[in-house]
């Protein structure tokens, strides 16, 4: 009996090890799929930093563009990108969160909600250049805004709106029905429950979607080119109707230059763009973490 039991235990041990082999292989492939993109990203960032090192300086940031590569700066494009992202956030985030609240809290079974959901799903897969053509026709021509900062921000707001809506809806779904019912049990109205219970709890997730949408907006080039962003601007935008440029447009302009020195400027512009993106994301993440800690408290 003892020999039979030991043989059975040995067979079960071998079977268990064999059954774990596919799982270990799958876990290894998952790690490989994670590490390869990170390694490629690290190589690209290091390569760009090495190329940009000769031009990375405070003077490069605060100087204006020039046809002489050694004197060219990125200040108008940097200010234009910050203005664009700020205006895009002011327009896209409130509208997107409001649409998500309506679809998730008020209009779940209505025909209007179904129609909006179908269009949001379709808009999420539209190429960015199509949004540029839409912005050119609606904002630049029909609305008479021209190739202005406001027209560019409106176009980018349309571009990121589906991302804001979808991510905000997912954040609202994380709020359990029991919390809503507790608000109703205390005599709160639907709006009071949404405002004081649902929205504060879902706000960290909504900010995550806002971070993703603004990260996409700051790196877009095709819609801005179609709308009419200038490739060479020697002044800072002084109003919503002012002509503008942005960091991706300026980088694209330098890359198209034949001189090697402008390629170095383009690498330095990429580093500045990554730094701005990292600062914006860091601020939003800190705010999100603060709200999460407040909800847990």
Query: Low-confidence stretches at least 5 residues in length (pLDDT < 50)?
Result: none
Based on the coordinates given, report the CATH architecture. Answer: Orthogonal Bundle
Characterize the biggest β-sheet: none
Can you tell me the overall shape? Answer: globular
CATH homologous superfamily label? MetI-like
Task: Specify the structural class.
Answer: mainly alpha
Q: How many discrete domains?
A: 1
- Straight-line distance between termini: 60 Å
Short description:
The protein is mainly α and 297 residues long.
What is the secondary structure topology, with strand pairs?
Layout: H1 2-52, H2 58-62, H3 75-106, H4 111-123, H5 128-142, H6 149-173, H7 177-185, H8 190-218, H9 222-227, H10 247-255, H11 260-296
Would you kindly provide a written description of the structure presented here, covering whatever features stand out?
The chain has 297 residues and is mostly helical. The protein has a single domain (59-296), classed as Orthogonal Bundle (MetI-like fold). It is 78% helix and 0% strand. It has 11 helices and no strands. Helix 3 (75-106) packs antiparallel against helix 8 (190-218). The protein is globular and about 70 Å long. The termini are far apart. The mean pLDDT is 84.
What characteristics describe this protein?
single chain, 297 residues, mainly alpha, MetI-like fold, 11 helices, 78% helix, 0% strand, globular
């Amino acid at each position: 009996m003892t020999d039979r039991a030991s043989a059975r235990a040995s067979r079960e041990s071998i079977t268990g090890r064999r059954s774990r082999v596919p799982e270990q292989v799958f876990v290894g492939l998952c790690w490989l799929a994670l590490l390869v993109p990170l390694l490629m990203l690290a190589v690209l960032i290091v390569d760009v930093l090495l190329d940009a090192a000769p031009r990375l300086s405070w003077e490069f940031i605060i100087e204006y563009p020039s046809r002489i590569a050694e004197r060219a700066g990125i200040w108008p494009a940097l200010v234009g990108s910050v203005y664009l992202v700020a205006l895009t956030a002011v327009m896209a985030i409130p509208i997107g969160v409001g649409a998500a609240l309506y679809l998730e809290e008020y209009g779940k079974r209505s025909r209007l909600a179904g129609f909006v959901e179908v269009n949001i799903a379709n808009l999420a897969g539209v190429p960015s250049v199509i949004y540029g053509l839409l912005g050119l026709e609606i904002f630049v021509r029909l609305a008479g805004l021209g190739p202005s900062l406001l027209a560019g921000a409106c176009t980018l707001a349309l571009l990121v709106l589906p991302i804001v809506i979808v991510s905000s809806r997912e954040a609202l779904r994380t709020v359990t029905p029991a919390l809503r019912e507790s608000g109703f049990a205390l005599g709160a109205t639907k709006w009071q429950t949404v405002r004081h219970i649902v929205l504060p709890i879902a706000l960290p997730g909504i900010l995550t979607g806002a971070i993703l949408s603004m990260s996409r907006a700051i790196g877009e080039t095709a819609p801005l080119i179609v709308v009419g962003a200038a490739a060479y601007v020697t002044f800072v935008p002084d109003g919503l109707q002012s002509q503008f440029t942005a960091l991706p447009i300026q980088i694209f302009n330098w890359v198209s230059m034949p001189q090697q020195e402008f390629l170095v400027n383009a690498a330095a512009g990429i580093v500045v763009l990554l730094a701005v993106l990292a600062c914006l994301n860091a601020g939003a993440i800190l705010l999100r973490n603060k709200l999460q800690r407040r909800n847990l408290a």
